[in-house]
Specification:
Layout (H helix, E strand, L loop, with lengths): L9 H4 L7 H6 L34 H16 L36 E3 L10 E3 L6 H8 L1 E2 L1 H7 L6 H4 L7 E3 L1 H6 L9 E2 L2 H5 L7 E2 L3 H4 L2 E2 L1 E2 L8 E2 L11 E2 L9 H8 L9 H7 L3 H4 L11 H18 E8 L5 E8 L14 E10 L2 E6 L2 E2 L4 E2 L24 E2 L5 E2 L1 E4 L16 E5 L9 H4 L7 E2 L2 E2 L6 H6 L1 E7 L6 E9 L3 H12 L25 H12 L8 E9 L12 E7 L2 E6 L10 E8 L2 E8 L6 E5 L7 E8 L11 E3 L4 E11 L6 E2 L4 E10 L9 E7 L4 E4 L8 E7 L8 E11 L3 E3 L5 E6 L1
Parallel strand pairs: 1-2, 14-17, 33-40, 34-41
Antiparallel strand pairs: 3-4, 5-6, 7-10, 8-9, 11-12, 12-23, 13-14, 13-18, 13-24, 15-16, 19-20, 21-22, 24-25, 26-27, 27-30, 28-29, 28-31, 31-32, 33-35, 35-38, 36-37, 36-39, 39-41
Helix pairs in contact: 10-13, 11-17, 16-17
Length: 773
């Protein structure tokens, strides 16, 4: 009701509170078991490292935490179970309820905002929340179980889901559990892989919380207020914490891309997509013109960040191929803190594609992708012909092609309720049929069963699916035999947001036709007036996928690649060097090296660097153009940049990174004089004396619009303000002197201030002397 229709937005997340506030406050839940001082003893409370609190006398963290604790202890008294019993006893939830997950949000009833800094400034009531920088906050959405089946299969009062953590029942997704089973989820965390750092996260050398990678620290303010501190440099209380970048990117680039494409004026606008998504609420229960509307630039930037996150996630290493025997081996390394890929069973998959070449000709391929029909070849799936005639049943494997299921990394549920060994009905899933996703570094297989996170093959848990070394290192060692005689072998790792099979399943289930897995009577969308409003989505989602399946986001995305033998023919574009980032008032001027001597260079692309991730700013289509001015910036905040060169058909790697902080520019009053009709220093009582001041910036350039304040001291003191300076920097003020004797004497006119928005006066009080007779 009411604000619920606003969905998941700022206010929702920043009103969440910690149901384990008692043990978090006491320091016994997390951040402990760390040798802070390096003396070999284990400290119980790691306020300095994990929470980044100085914990010094007079600093605000502890008093702020005290206030938050008191508020949450009060709120906890009103939380009831469905049977009316109190959920909390002595401020503690039920014994087995060790994590709040699977969408069990604890939302404060008041409007005070909770966040992760005790020294924040805002115009609303705030509570300092350690929960918001805790790994456990991420469990709320990222350990997903089926509560309906859990309660049906475990009848009782109170409900099973009110007494037990979600990781213990009916697996849907275990991303947070996988993190907790990794080295990163252990007290103190772990060092990140060097490859992860090199591939786009140079500053993330250690991770102990999900936020370390998914909400990277940048330089900036938490709010655009005069009193907000610039983090981390201006924060005494949290000296090691930058401003968390509210990126929260995963790997889904397709939905953002398609939504942007339906918006007129978007760089990727597609009229077909627009027609599909703008059928109106009477057809689709969706009206894209309502609310805040769609910002296509922001959506496309988010899609770009998702792809960059995928590029960080994996590395292919140690490729070895014997041309005589055909023996091929390599290692797929997981650079993330959870299984690769994360496992919501919506058709997403990651797969290894292998191509063997002789003299540049493809002679053999593992896991080929049928581009024309939008799927992997060799899958056993009862495809339906496309009702619109666009797609057909995929081509069968060719003589020199093979499908290897072990190299398709995915989670497939199973359901005794539908009778399917493999199902897309995750809401009816009672187990897992396949889960061969690559474990993160340090995966504790001995603890995985309690979190329903053991690898599964053919519906059977297989703790030995990976070796002890693979669990420890977070990788999959692959060995197989392909034909010999190749002079190069290319190993490609692809990620696909969703599959043709899943979209086809949605279409058929909503339409009530095709490959139905349940009796026709089960599909209430066909008979119920309320759910019937969703019926048009069956064809709409299919049409959107077939229209865009080979475009950015929907097509398989190349995450990593390695080659044995001859190197692949990749982009050979030279890399520019970013030479300077010069700050100005609300702007930064960039210059980079000129690569126009290479005739294939067609221009350059300018990006922000967001703690390793790139966000597009502008394309420079002139190969001799080596400058760009980024305007409309906020003074006092740091901006980081990198550039690339464009070839005829590809883009170079990124340049070096340079940063700058735009700032209020200096104003100089370089001279002031007094004059009447002609310059002079002696005036008669009663004359109109005119003062001229010249204003320039720190570079000596005349500045318009500045107002100069003059203090006139002498027998008759006066304060004057000039008119705004003109384009020559000239600012003028006039003083009508008195005719009486009391005005006669020696005077000094001194500049006491120069004002112009976003500029700071240099403080030099230039002056002139004159006499009134």
């Amino acid at each position: 009701t009411g604000a619920d229709y606003d969905g998941v937005q700022c206010d929702f997340c920043h009103r969440m509170w910690d149901p384990h506030f008692e043990t978090t406050y006491a320091g016994t839940r997390e951040g402990g078991d760390v040798d802070i001082n390096g003396d070999g003893t284990i400290d119980d409370q790691d306020w300095a490292l994990y929470w980044d609190e100085t914990n010094a006398s007079g600093t605000p963290s502890q008093p702020a935490a005290d206030a938050t604790y008191a508020d949450e202890a009060g709120t906890a008294q009103s939380i009831l179970q469905f049977n009316g019993d109190n959920f909390f006893t002595n401020n503690l939830p039920p014994t087995n309820y060790t994590e709040s997950a699977s969408g069990q949000f604890f939302i404060s009833p008041d409007a005070a905002k909770r966040a992760s800094f005790a020294d924040a400034e805002a115009r609303h009531q705030m509570f300092y929340s350690r929960f918001h920088k805790s790994k456990y906050m991420c469990a709320t959405c990222h350990d997903v179980s089926n509560p309906i089946l859990a309660n049906l299969f475990n009848p009782g009062d109170p409900l099973h889901t009110e007494q037990n953590s979600a990781y213990s029942y009916f697996h849907v997704e275990r991303t947070f559990s996988e993190f907790m089973l990794s080295d990163y989820g252990q007290p103190g965390g772990a060092a990140t892989n060097p490859e992860f750092q090199v591939q786009g996260a140079p500053n993330i050398t250690h991770a102990a919380k999900c936020q370390d990678c998914h909400m990277r620290d940048v330089v900036g303010k938490g709010a655009d207020l005069k009193n907000a501190v610039v983090r981390p440099s201006e924060s005494f209380e949290h000296p090691n914490s930058g401003q968390p970048l509210h990126d929260l990117t995963g790997g889904n680039a397709w939905v953002s891309w398609v939504l942007a494409s339906a918006t007129p004026g978007s760089p990727n606008f597609d009229q077909f997509n627009a027609d599909q998504l703008n059928q109106g609420p009477a057809v689709l229960t969706l009206d894209l013109t309502q609310g805040e509307g769609i910002d296509p630039v922001a959506l496309l930037a988010g899609a770009d960040r998702a792809k960059q996150q995928l590029l960080l996630a994996a590395t292919i290493k140690n490729v070895s191929y014997s041309a005589s025997s055909g023996a091929l081996s390599f290692q797929v390394q997981n650079n993330g803190g959870h299984k690769l890929i994360s496992g919501f069973p919506e058709g997403r998959r990651m797969f290894v594609n292998i191509k063997a070449f002789t003299d540049g000709n493809l002679i053999y391929e593992v896991n080929p992708y049928d581009v024309a029909n939008g799927t992997l070849k060799g899958l056993s799936y009862p495809y339906q012909p496309d009702p619109n005639g666009v797609l057909q049943i995929p081509d069968p494997l060719g003589a020199n092609e093979a499908y290897v299921d072990e190299l398709v990394y995915e989670m497939k549920p199973t359901s005794t309720l539908t009778g399917e060994a493999k199902t897309f009905h995750f809401a009816l899933a009672t187990g897992r049929y396949k889960d061969n996703r690559i474990p993160p570094k340090g995966f504790r297989i001995s603890d995985a069963a309690s979190r329903i996170s053991v690898p599964v093959e053919g519906g059977v848990e297989k703790p030995g699916y990976f070796t002890a070394a693979e669990y420890s290192g977070g990788y999959d060692d692959v060995s197989l035999t392909i034909p010999g005689g190749a002079d190069s072998v290319e190993v490609n790792l692809y990620y696909q947001t969703t599959s043709r099979e899943y979209i086809e399943f949605l279409r058929d289930e909503i339409n009530g036709t095709g490959n139905l897995t349940l009796p026709a009577s089960a599909y209430v969308v066909q008979t119920d007036a309320f759910f019937g409003q969703l019926r048009a989505w069956g064809d709409t989602i299919w049409n959107l996928w077939t229209q865009n399946m080979n475009l950015d986001g929907a097509a398989p995305f190349l995450m990593a690649q390695a080659v044995a033998g001859a190197p692949p023919t990749g982009c050979t574009a030279p890399t520019p060097t970013l030479l300077s980032t010069t700050p100005g008032n609300q702007q930064i001027d960039l210059t980079w090296s000129n690569l126009s001597s290479d005739p294939e260079v067609t221009g350059y692309t300018v990006y922000y660097d967001l703690a390793g991730k790139a966000q597009w700013i502008a394309d420079i289509t002139d190969p001799t153009g080596t400058t760009y001015t980024d305007v409309g910036l906020t003074n006092g905040l740091e901006y980081c940049y990198k550039v690339s060169a464009s070839y005829l058909d590809c883009e170079s790697v990124f340049s070096n990174i340079l940063c700058a902080i735009p700032k209020d520019q200096q104003l100089n009053s370089i001279g002031v004089s007094a004059l009447t009709t002609s310059p002079g220093t002696v005036f008669k009582a009663g004359d109109l004396v005119t003062f001229e001041a010249t204003v320039s910036d720190g570079n000596g350039v005349a500045t318009s619009g500045a107002v100069v304040t003059l203090a006139i001291t002498g027998p008759n003191s006066q304060t004057l303000a000039t008119e705004p300076s003109n384009q020559d920097g000239l600012a003028i003020a006039s003083w009508q002197t008195n005719k009486g004797k009391k005005s006669r004497g020696d005077y000094t006119a001194t500049v006491t201030g120069v004002t112009l928005p976003n500029y700071v006066w240099d403080g030099v009080g230039t002056s002139t002397t004159f006499t009134i007779q």
